[in-house]
Amino acid sequence: MSKQTKFLLNEDQMPKAWYNLQADLPKPLPVVLHPGTMQPVGPDDLAPLFPMSLILQEVSTEREIEIPEPVREVYRLWRPAPLYRAHGLEKALGTCAKIYYKYEGVSPAGSHKPNTAVPQAFFNKEAGVKRLVTETGAGQWGTSLAFAGGHYGLQVEVFQVRVSFDQKPYRRAVMETYGARCVASPSNETVYGRSVLAKHPDHPGSLGIAISEAVELAVQRDDTKYALGSVLNHVLLHQTVIGLEAMQQMEMADTWPDVVVGCTGGGSNFAGMVFPFIGHGLRGGPKPRIVAVEPAACPSLTRGKYAYDFGDTAGMTPLTKMHTLGSQFTPPGFHAGGLRYHGMAPMVSHARELGLLEAVAYKQVECFEAGVLFARTEGIVPAPEANHAVRGAIVEALRCKREGKAETILFCLSGHGHFDMASYQKYFAGQLSDESYDEAELAMALAGLPSVPEPA
């Protein structure tokens, strides 16, 4: 048996084009609706938020979309990212499965998020934009856009969900180091933020509220656009460099995954890893099981309703059909802040409806337990979000052990946890609990979904 641990690609093997799953889907995505008219949106409706180049990527059905050379030049700072064989974890589990992980924590921001932050900043710069506004949960996206904006000379303003703003002060420090401005959301800087604080002065915040604040600012100035770190098609598109590289690296390892696992909040790292494999299967290749792992305290895929909903809490964004807990839903303050979003990416949701993937939900403590085992066997401390993928991979490996199957498991380790050590300290002190959402609040949020007639 090969004991090779790292599988590395040369820079000239980096993908030259992103992969677009829309080209291979057996059924097209449901249309996106205007929040005011409830009619299908057109490019002009999105123009206040995004440059036209990104809008065209959002609606494209082309299988491949070229990665501009200036973007690939910045990608070379960390891409191609390594693929590892988890020999230590396999031994600790006593499994006959082979476990591989694609490690995205090698980026400047420590996660997969720069894969889309860089092209978004590039296309905005090309369009003459001067300022980008955004939201962030745990801070990985805000850090990434701060890095990308600084590279292209763009002003970046970040609304960080209050609970994460308080939990992760060093993420804020990194954003400021890159030149961005970061404020806690809900804030007094927007009309919507002030309205939330007037009702709930101690509101912990949510990604939906932070999105509302960022969108409110974006539409006020012609030199400003909005940037999003997950959910939208063009974001998932940019992330497919993960899976495209992993496919080459699995061939280097002379194997192919039977199971591909990723953590899911909005869906970006998950889609980036699995969409190329799903597309390969739809075109006649092998079809691995695809497993999305989400937090039990914010389970949009496993408990949410597949329906049209707003991407933000104020109802300013277009409506997309997705698995949602309701845009008014506020998740509890568990430590995987990047997974605290009420909805799942429309394309991930659509793939779930088509039976192309399955979903499971795990609790916070068992995910941290998995992350600690991974750190002690593989040497990398995962981010709390990535711990969900680690947990998912361990569950699959233990299943193989019970069944006596030597399957190949591939998962995306989407980021490191170096800015999340306070969470680990709480885990070791026995102060980390399994947060639960309020069933009554969830029922109310789902009951408040917008009434949308199904488009003809």
TrEMBL record:
Listed Gene3D superfamilies: 3.40.50.1100
Enzyme class, broadest EC rank: lyase
Residues in Tryptophan synthase beta chain-like PALP domain copies: 77-415
Enzyme Commission number(s) from the entry: 4.2.1.20
Gene Ontology, cellular component aspect: cytoplasm
Pfam families, per the entry: PALP
Example GO molecular function: pyridoxal phosphate binding
Origin: domain of life: Bacteria
Presence of keyword Amino-acid biosynthesis: yes
Signal peptide: none
Cofactor(s) the protein requires to work: pyridoxal 5'-phosphate
Residues recorded as bearing N6-(pyridoxal phosphate)lysine in the entry: 113
Biological or metabolic pathway of the protein: Amino-acid biosynthesis; L-tryptophan biosynthesis; L-tryptophan from chorismate: step 5/5
UniProt keyword annotations, A-Z: Amino-acid biosynthesis, Aromatic amino acid biosynthesis, Lyase, Pyridoxal phosphate, Tryptophan biosynthesis
Catalytic function, reaction form: (1S,2R)-1-C-(indol-3-yl)glycerol 3-phosphate + L-serine = D-glyceraldehyde 3-phosphate + L-tryptophan + H2O
Family, similarity comment: Belongs to the TrpB family.
Its biological purpose: The beta subunit is responsible for the synthesis of L-tryptophan from indole and L-serine.
Subunit (UniProt): Tetramer of two alpha and two beta chains.
Protein name: Tryptophan synthase beta chain
Source organism of this protein record: Rhodoferax fermentans
Gene for this chain: trpB
